[in-house]
Amino acid sequence: MHLHFVDYAIIAIYFVFVLGIGFALRGRMKTSDDFFLSGRSIPGWVTGLAFMSANLGALEVMGHAANAAKYGMFVNHFYWLAAIPAMCFVGVFMMPFYYGSKVRSVPEYLRKRYDEKTRTLNALSFALMTLLVSGIDLYAMAILFQRLLNWPFGGCVVASAAVVAIYIYLGGLTSSIYNEVLQFFLIVFGFLPLAILGLKAVGGFAGLEAKLPNAGYAHTWANIWHASQNPMGINWFGTIFGLGFVLSFGYWCTDFLVVQRGLAAKDMPSAQRTPLIAAVPKMFFPLMVVLPGLVAIALDPSRTKYLSGPQGYNNALPAMLGKFYPSGLLGIGLTALMASFMSGMAGNVTAFNTVWTFDIYQTHVNPGKPDRHYLNMGRFATVFAVAVGIGTAFIVLKFNNLMDYLQLLFAFFNAPLFGTFLLGMFWKRTSAHSGFWGLLSGILAAATHYTLYHFHVIFYPTDMAANFYQAIWAFSVCVVVTVVVTLFTEPRKEEELVGLVYSLTPKPRNQDLPWYERPGILAIGILALCAVLNIIFW
Amino acid sequence: MGLDIRLPIGIIFTLYGGVLIIYGAVADPAIFVNSLGVNIDIWWGAAMLLFGLFMGILAFRASHRGAS
Questions:
Q1: Direct distance between the N- and C-terminal alpha carbons of chain B, in angstroms, rounded to an integer
Q2: Closest to B44 (Cα-Cα) out of B16, B9, B12, B7
Q3: Could you give the CA distance from residue A93 to residue A97 in angstroms, rounded to a whole number?
Q4: Residue A4: how many CB atoms within 10 A of its CB?
């Protein structure tokens, strides 16, 4: 791939704007609430697109294109079975508790609903997971630019990390959210021509279907009934319960990286609409990542050209960019890739600095300081998280399968946490002690399952199947232990749980909103549209 | 928070659209063999330009409504 002056100019303009947004917001960061929560002042469409974009990291974009080349349209399940229903659920049912209880982070909700030890366990595991994940985006970006353009790995890592650190340091969460919105539009405009040109090159959908290695590639659901019939090696139970329920709801409903965007919204209806607005572009995202992956395998079914080598599938998206984009548009496409890496990394950094500052530092290390002190700690944590991210980028360099690494971490930490949340929010009897023991045993169950799988005591056809079942086990053990401990311990007083538990909280009044702004109606419309997409691409 | 994000988005997309259109018009047509013979720079540049202007107009109108 060869870049011209115009491509470098386009990339340079992007960096100027990203940093410019940080500088423009610098003077507005006066309190810790401004820095960590954007002063709860951002309109719903902005937080919605940021919610979508924070999740659009390197793995999302390049990983799912690679998966599509490998597994075909089965990958659509990550969107239409997993993400969309979970996003509707968090918007309609869970956002009222997150936003309404005025908590500043997910662990803080756990302190109010359960107790201090539950919060601390979650804060520590989340901080650890975020640091382990934050290097992946840096790694993917650097390795890509090293391969495509021969830019040095170390230089790419440090330079892109420095840009993310500067704009968050200056403008906190607001800067991250505003940049995510800019990045969202760049990603859409950068990848959409690829879908159009790719489809044109293979002769439309009919031509694409004819050129795929086998008919199963062109179907989302048709091969789900038996593990042996689909390339991911997972049957309907593992897919629907493991991915569609535990992993997806665990991620979208409890991962602070995405929930934090909703907390920055200016009012309750905007907070509820945040994931719903995000769900609309999310639904059509397979067009931009799955389709290029399918085009790549259709053009190179024997994997000798674009997808050659052991890491070949990971090249699907960049190889298609190089094949179809002329200079000029190539600059836009590479900018879109960089934008996705940066938005993914920034999401991790803002989530980490908030949880570290409020739930660990302010609670256990140094409580009772003036607000200014915590604002500065947030800035310091930003720099720290980015520096550790650089370190993990070099650790990740030693591993070769990124998607498994990520889903493994989710199955460890998010899956049991979702059980704790589900019981805490919807069963008022759940006692204060039970949360901690349920969460801890869920994480231990995940660790046990991982050890048994790792040492070949139990078998799965693919690593992804193992991850799905690990999530199911972690979630189930968490739920069972929480229920059992609850039955042997004192329930909490009902008046303490108002605003934290579904049955004890007044429902948000949406009667005065026009119908198209009511979360319930929006969610039903989104789910109906999603069902139609599932049927079209059955 | 004071800053209307539609303004920078409008500016950068207008700028990108302009750059792509100009480059597409002056570049050697041979480079468009990649994009199946379509001068995608001009077409996609025009799409980005329109989007940029649209965002810019929204931001402009909002700032004037706020001022009056």
A1: 19
A2: B16
A3: 8
A4: 15
Which CATH number is correct for A5-536, 1.10.260.40, 1.20.1730.10, 3.40.50.720, 3.30.70.100?
1.20.1730.10
Q: Which of B1, B16, B34 sits opposite A38 (nearest CB)?
A: B1
Instruction: Select from A532, A508, A15, A4 the least CA-distant residue to A284.
Output: A532
Whole-angstrom CA distances from B46 to A92, A442, A536, B52 are: 39, 53, 32, 10
Q: What is the DSSP letter of A265?
A: B
For chain A, the residues whose C-beta falls within 8 A of a C-beta of chain B are 6, 9-10, 13-14, 17, 20-21, 24-25, 28, 38-39, 41-42, 46, 174, 178, 181-182, 185, 189, 193, 197, 200-201, 323-329, 332
Could you tell me if A102 and A116 are in contact, meaning their C-beta atoms sit under 8 angstroms apart?
no
CA distances (Å), A142 to each of A139, A383, A393, B31, in order? 5, 19, 9, 27
Cβ-defined contact of A28 to B1 (cutoff 8 Å): yes
**pLDDT tens digits for range A361-402:** 888 888 888 888 888 888 888 999 988 888 887 776 665 556
Give DSSP secondary structure letters for A414-442: HHHHHHHHHHHHH-TT--HHHHHHHHHHH
| Residue numbers of the domain that contains B17 | 6-67
Determine how many CB atoms are found less than 10 A away from the CB of residue B66. 8
pLDDT score of B53:
94
Side chain identity at residue B68, one-letter code: S
At A326 the three-state DSSP class reads coil
Backbone angles phi, psi at A217, to 5 degrees: -60, -30
Chain A residues in contact with B24 by the CB 8 A cut-off are 328
**Sign, CA torsion A357/A363/A364/A367:** positive
CA gap A237, B4 in Å, rounded: 46
Write the single-letter amino acid at A412.
Answer: F
Secondary structure class of A509 (helix, strand, coil): coil
Instruction: Examine residue B57 and state whether it is found in any structural domain, yes or no.
Output: yes
Residue with tokens 């085009």: A295
**And the tokens for A336?**
């879109």
pLDDT in tens, A245-295: 788 888 888 888 888 888 888 888 888 888 888 888 888 888 888 888 888
| Cβ–Cβ gap B13/A189 under 8 Å | yes
Instruction: Indicate whether B1 belongs to any domain.
Output: no
Q: How many domains does chain B have?
A: 1
- Whether A457 has a pLDDT exceeding 90, the answer reads no
- Give the helix/strand (H/E) hosting B23: helix B6-26
| Token pair 């500067």 in the structure block, residue | A166
CB atoms within 10 A of CB B48: 26
Q: What is the pLDDT of residues A519-534, one digit of tens each?
A: 878 888 888 887 777 7
Q: What is the pTM of this model?
A: 0.88
